[in-house]
Specification:
Elements lengths: L5 E11 L9 E10 L2 E7 L7 H4 E6 L4 E4 L1 E3 L11 H8 L4 H6 L4 H9 L3 H17 L2 E7 L6 H18 L2 E9 L10 H18 L5 E4 L8 H13 L5 E4 L7 H7 L4 E4 L5 H10 L2 E4 L1 H6 L8 H6 L4 E3 L13 H10 L5 H7 L2 H6 L16 E4 L6 H4 L6 E6 L2 E2 L14
Parallel strand pairs: 1-4, 1-5, 6-7, 7-8, 8-9, 10-11, 11-12, 12-13
Antiparallel strand pairs: 1-2, 2-3, 5-14, 14-15, 15-16
The structure holds N-(iminomethyl)-L-glutamic acid and fe (iii) ion.
């Protein structure tokens, strides 16, 4: 008798494969199997080539439960010191995000707190946020720097991001966001700061292997299109992909710029216009929607969802987890808000936190349930895909697999930081 070839086979699943081009690709009474961390079979149970026990070492029925690809949060700023609950109060009392930023609060206040926080403390403060995302189904995570705005602290943030990935046993993609805000010590030397970021910080941190992609905040209260362009030129020279906080509070034509550089994504996009959409469609740049920031800032202008659809720009959804505009710790909640606030369909929202989020990070090896993909998957306490954006809160994850391994069986994240 032949020995079973597969490591694990899940039976009786409602699969949301996200593998076709528009829907979330449901297969009822489905089965999915993996070996050496990769999916080797996916389809209808009654089409399995042999008896389950002859096919796999371990066979488990999930009794009709929904199984999806592991969720992917493609835009977070979850490594930071302190919090900004006081600004939440100020905003509720009428102050705008821009007013707070101009008065020395906002991003710069988190910069002060982060500069004052040691690497171990940053790690300990950030770990629960990463764990919260994981416990809600996230198996791949992007984390940006941008609260250091000087070499040492930017490096510390990126190292903490890498360490979170190692300790949690998940993929963390790091993004350098040196052009996030002008640090106070450069208030009258803007050009010098941009030069420092482009000519010193970026190449240095890239040479240390700490940067997977490059981002900027292209905005009235951030950096101009020209300054962003300098950064993108340097990123290009270093062979690093770019993405952009674009058209969040005003239209700076940032989406077209990032598309011109073949960027992975343009993110926020409430003020995106038609020319930006066309450029994104032509370049294959993903639109990353961040309803948490829209909600927390009580924005009223919606991103142009219909036009994005019409032009076939793929939409991803992310938490934007950060201490100012989106203190959000659930990617499912972001998906839910993308439906209720932005009118995405539940299918679009699920594709937004799986396959399209993978593309926004440049991954082609995950985000769908298909043969050859990494066996990152979630078994849910739910039976239908729409439930993931329908339930608000709660804990729906039954089981998480990362590269075929049950996450609960991996070593738990230690309370005490290990040496980095
Ligand atoms: O994505 N807009 C710029 N960056 C973040 C906010 C960061 C902050 O306020 O701390 C965002 O919304
Ligand atoms: Fe952001």
């Amino acid at each position: 008798m032949n020995m079973p070839r597969w490591d694990k086979l899940l039976l009786n699943a409602t699969l949301a494969t996200c593998a076709d081009t528009t829907t979330c690709g449901v297969i009822e009474r489905g089965a999915v199997a993996w070996q050496h961390g990769r999916i080797v079979w996916v389809g209808r149970m009654d089409e399995l080539p042999d008896a389950p026990n002859a096919l796999a070492e371990a066979v488990e029925s999930v009794d009709g439960a929904l199984v999806t690809p592991g969720l992917i949060d493609c835009h977070t700023h979850l490594v930071f010191g302190g919090d900004r609950a006081d600004e939440f109060d100020l905003r509720l009392n009428g102050a705008s995000y821009e007013q707070i930023a101009k008065a020395g609060g906002g991003i710069v206040s988190t910069v002060r707190a982060t500069r004052d926080t040691s690497e171990d403390q940053l790690y300990l403060q950030s770990m629960p946020r990463a764990q919260a995302l994981l416990s809600d189904g996230v198996t791949t995570l992007e984390i940006k720097s941008g609260y250091g705005l000087e070499l040492e602290t930017e490096r510390r943030m990126l190292k903490v991001a890498r360490r979170l990935g190692r300790e949690l046993g998940i993929t963390v993609r790091t993004t350098f966001l040196g052009l996030h805000a002008l640090p106070p010590e450069y208030h009258d030397r803007r050009e010098d700061y941009v030069t420092l970021v482009c000519d010193v910080m970026l190449p240095e941190l890239a040479s240390e292997g700490l940067i997977d992609a490059v981002d900027a905040f292209c905005e009235n209260i951030g950096f101009t299109r020209e300054e962003t362009l300098c950064l993108f030129e340097r990123a290009k020279q270093l062979g690093l992909p770019v993405k952009l906080h674009a058209e969040q509070l005003s239209n700076q034509d940032g989406a077209a710029l990032v598309a011109e550089y073949g960027g992975l994504s343009a993110d926020h996009l409430e003020h995106l216009g038609k020319s930006g959409i066309k450029a994104m469609a032509a370049a294959g740049t993903i639109a990353v929607l961040l309803p948490g920031a829209f909600h927390a800032l009580r924005e009223t202008r919606l991103p142009p969802i219909d036009l994005l659809r019409q032009h076939g720009v793929p939409m991803a959804v992310a938490t934007d987890c950060n201490p100012g505009t989106s203190p959000m710790l659930s990617l499912r909640l972001a998906a839910s808000m993308a439906c209720t606030l932005f009118r995405l369909t539940p299918d679009e929202a699920l594709r937004g936190i799986t396959v399209n989020a993978a593309r926004a990070l440049g991954f082609t090896d995950r985000g769908t349930l298909a043969v050859g993909q990494r066996a990152d998957l979630v078994v849910w306490n739910a039976r239908r895909p729409a439930e993931l954006s329908y339930w608000i809160g709660g804990s729906l994850v039954r089981k998480l697999y990362v590269a075929g391994e049950s996450l609960s069986r991996r070593k738990p994240a230690r309370r005490l930081p290990s040496a980095s």
